[in-house]
Amino acid sequence: MTGSWLALEPGADPAERARALRRAHEMFTAAGTVPRPVRDVVAESWRRSVRAGVGPDVTASVELMDGDLGTYRAEHPLARVMPLVRELMGTFAADGEHLLAVCDAHGRLLWVEGHPATRRRAGRMNFVPGARWAESAVGTNAPGTAVAVDRPVQVFAAEHFIRRVQPWTCAAAPVHDPHTGRVLGAVDITGGDGLAHPHSLGFVQAVARAAESQLALLTPERPGADAAELTALGRDEALLSADGRRIRLSRRHSEIVVLLAHHPEGMSGDELLCALYEDETVTPVTLRAELARLRGVLGPGRLVSRPYRLAIPVESDAAVVERRLRAGAVTAAATAYAGPLLPGSQAPAVARLRRRLADDLRASLIASRDPDLLADWAHAPWGEDDRDIWHALAAIRPTAVARSRLAALESELTAPNGW
């Protein structure tokens, strides 16, 4: 039961479970221990919430309003499937006095619709469009936790980390880009204890899958000469999507395609050799063999030589982040950043691209002084030892967690070798 993604097992008494969860929540906030009957998924979320510096009495902040919200929603990929989401969930939400909600990949609510009286009640806790409901901002909740763990999840009563949200129950499921697999956001149903039923979790999961299918249908078929998509952030083996195929590249082929996508004009054999290998004893024959194998993987006519270049345009996720940073869209850039570029690569040119992209984004985050964006980076695997980010976060949101982590990092920096 504790490992289940369902809030209540068959036969459980909701009222008794709610009382037990309130006692468990008070014990956790007082002593940091998680007793039964708290499920594993909730216990782990509570711990992440504390590490992010979330307190049980915080309130969600509204980040987007009026024109900014309208523009952001109109440009978001999930806007294209909102008519379908409303068709599938709208009547259920209105008749059951529930709310349907859709958030982006950062847990920011984009749409909150449903029963008018329920919307007014939810508005008192800022469960409104434009508000940030990420775990790192407001603790355990269904839409924020669903995008954090990339799984459908129910959150029942006092499983919510914030006390003022504990009268509510919700279920949410992530929605993915059908071509890249990246999380775009989540669909959520929020209301009373009745939503703890297993059907509500299956319902939002079915809606999420329907939304993904609709997105796939709405995305035009790509002819052979059209752009391919390259996903290389946060993964050692890049994914290339073209002509309806998704090709998982080897580590070396990932490095080559990343470099050629960054240099659409092409690279000579000598340039590629220096870009890929630190070892100067590696011969051009080795590189030519790798390129021959890659040509077979990509298919005829996709990789040409003199100079080596990709014969089709390639849109990489790293280029999306770079473009958004140049436009000053820091939140959008952070949303698109799924992690370091080919983090395991030691190819000199890839390492330089990885450092430059991370440094540019870090600098933009620090300059933005947005505590939620800083917290997202600080609590990500690539940011947990980032002293500059923790320093900026502690200056803006001086929680005990932030101050403690910053002190530990500064202590490590000044400690003598061998300590």
TrEMBL record:
Pfam families: GAF. Residues 104-214 form the GAF domain. InterPro entries: GAF (IPR003018), GAF-like_dom_sf (IPR029016). This is GAF domain-containing protein.
